[in-house]
Design a protein that fits this description.
There is one protein chain. By secondary structure, the protein is an alpha+beta fold. The chain has two domains: 211 residues, D-Maltodextrin-Binding Protein, domain 2 (3-Layer(aba) Sandwich), CATH 3.40.190; 257 residues, D-Maltodextrin-Binding Protein, domain 2 (3-Layer(aba) Sandwich). 38% of the residues lie in helices and 13% in strands. A five-stranded mixed sheet has the order 3-2-4-14-7. Helix 12 packs antiparallel against helix 15, helix 13 packs across helix 14 and helix 16 runs antiparallel to helix 17. The longest helix is centred in the last third of the chain and has 19 residues. The chain is globular and about 75 Å long.
């Protein structure tokens, strides 16, 4: 009899960077007398006493490229919103290619909309909030218009969302790790006598075997930059400070008593790493065009050109499943070269939703978001599509995709801002790929044994006071830092000295000092 197992659907993660200025003036505030208007009998929401007698249409911006059946799904969502809060909703998407440009323009142009996806560090939260683009969410406002959200989102999440003591987003409720693992070919491991790869030394031995014996496969093909996080940061218990110019300012996440920030490029560990990357590049672990290649991170591994791929466990296991369907003889799996090092959970603010500061209907927008995050019917629609069309429900907490699932792929159409661990469905699979089970077991072990508890794991830097320096440093990172990280410099010491000189000239010390100042203030406020 087939073994039936339920697994958590593993979804994609993305990482984007900075945002320009926006020109919204001081945001409106809600008059205390308007918070709980008593409505006439029969009008609006009788259970809350909030006046919803006037029908409104809300507009929400999400990130990504949407899906073919977005309009169809949100028509169904609007029917529920209409019944429950007398509102409908339309959505528009800011594509991955253009959102860095379009996002700030929505605010500087004064565009009329109500809700928008946001995220600390990569999704424009700090930059927009400090420029008064978002509506302040006071505790009274949230208790009045989103009481169910207040029961779901943990207190620490609201603390993480605070900027200068104020909250401007509803954080998602989801436990996620951004920790990188290394996808490998199980058949090649067997061929060269590796039953495990759990250290840098074992990984390099695997890579050496590939270079010496394989003709059409290299260890990483065009993805040499991928080793930066597992080699330089994760294996040493370091974490990049969120919101700072990546990846130049660090803290020691493995040591919760150490809150002093350091500059990556001036550490002896960076020099050691740089020498190792040059050694690997010279051996042919990856191609010399790693920084200019148009390959995606997954292409070389999936196409059989690379013996490994570096990414977070969700994405690696996703592509491993794809490989094992097309080439089961490759036995794709993954490994962790620092299996016992503490690792942080992504902040709850890694995904969230904010209200536009000039929304004409902030109260109704908040009520709608309350339903998106806590109403099972609305949650299922936004996450999985229409039951019977895109998915089939299996009990209360599992699902299986149907033939038209590709027209609204589960949990990929930017429903992440209102993630709710209590309502998520698990993908139902009979006889799942072993790599999926391995990923689930790894994440459970991380949760139970290896999650760090550093006070800065939830901290995010705000660049407002040093935005000019950050802009220059970001450009210099591509020009001087990245070539060192893929080992394509002729003289490592000379390249590092030039990098340090350029960064100091651009103001890296000023940025580091500002980041430390913010850290000290953040810790003092706790």
């Amino acid at each position: 009899m087939k073994k039936r197992i339920s697994i958590v659907l593993l979804t994609f993660a993305v990482a984007i960077s900075m945002i320009s200025a926006c020109g919204v003036n001081d945001q409106p505030t809600v008059d205390d007398t308007q918070l709980t208007q008593v409505q006439p009998k029969g009008a609006g929401d009788e259970t809350t006493g909030i006046d919803t007698s006037k029908s409104v249409n809300l507009k929400m911006y999400l990130l990504g490229d949407g899906a073919a059946d977005v309009d169809l799904v949100y028509e169904e969502i609007s029917k529920i919103l209409k019944e429950k809060i007398n509102a409908t909703i339309t959505v528009d998407f800011l594509s991955w290619a253009e959102h860095d440009t379009r996002y700030p323009l929505l605010f500087s142009s004064g565009e009329d909309f109500d809700l928008i996806f946001t995220a600390a560090g990569w999704g424009h939260y700090e930059q927009t909030a400090t420029k008064k683009g978002f509506y302040e969410l006071t505790e009274d406002f949230l208790n009045t218009y989103a009481p169910d959200i207040m029961k779901v989102v943990p207190e620490i999440a609201w603390d993480q969302a605070k900027i200068n003591g104020k909250v401007y987003m509803v954080p998602n409720y989801s436990i996620e790790y951004g920790y990188d693992v290394i996808g490998v070919r199980g058949d090649l491991m067997e061929k060269y006598g590796f039953d495990k790869i759990e250290s840098k030394e074992e990984l390099e031995a695997y890579y050496d075997a590939i270079v010496k014996n394989e003709t059409d496969i290299t260890p990483l093909a065009t993805q040499g930059i991928g080793l930066q996080y597992p080699y330089l940061f994760q294996s040493r218990g370091w974490q990049v400070v969120r919101g700072t110019p990546l990846p130049l300012i660090l803290y020691e996440t493995a040591n919760p008593n150490n809150t002093t920030l350091v500059s990556t490029i001036e550490t002896p560990e960076f020099r050691e790493y740089a020498y190792k990357m040059k050694e690997m590049a010279d051996k042919g672990y990856w191609s010399r065009d790693s920084l200019t290649s148009n390959d995606t991170r997954s292409d070389p591994w999936v196409l059989g050109k690379a013996a490994s791929m570096v990414w977070n466990v969700n994405n690696v296991s996703h592509y491993a499943q794809q490989i094992n369907k097309e080439h089961p003889e490759w036995k794709a799996t993954f490994t962790d070269i620092a299996p016992n090092v503490k690792r942080p959970v992504n902040p709850y603010t890694n995904n969230g939703v904010a209200l536009n500061a000039i929304s004409k209907n902030p109260e109704r927008a908040m009520m709608a978001l309350n339903l998106f995050m806590t109403d099972k019917q609305v949650y299922d629609l936004a996450a999985y599509g229409i039951e019977g069309v895109h998915y089939k429900a299996v009990g209360e907490d599992m699902y299986t995709p149907l033939e038209d699932a590709g027209r609204f792929p589960a949990e990929t159409v930017c429903n992440w801002g209102w993630n709710n661990e209590n309502l998520k469905r698990k993908l139902y699979v009979e006889n799942p790929d072993p790599v999926v089970i391995k990923a689930q077991e790894a994440i459970e072990r991380w949760k139970n044994e290896l999650t760090s508890n550093h006070p800065l794991d939830a901290f995010s830097f705000t660049e407002e006071n040093v935005k000019n320096e950050v802009a220059v440093i970001s450009t210099l990172t591509t020009q001087y830092f990245d070539p060192i990280c893929v080992g394509i410099v002729d003289d490592v010491d000379k390249a590092i000295e030039e990098l340090i000189a350029k960064m100091k000239e651009a103001g890296i010390d000023k940025v580091l000092q500002e980041a430390q100042r913010q850290v000290d203030e953040y810790l003092a406020s706790k």
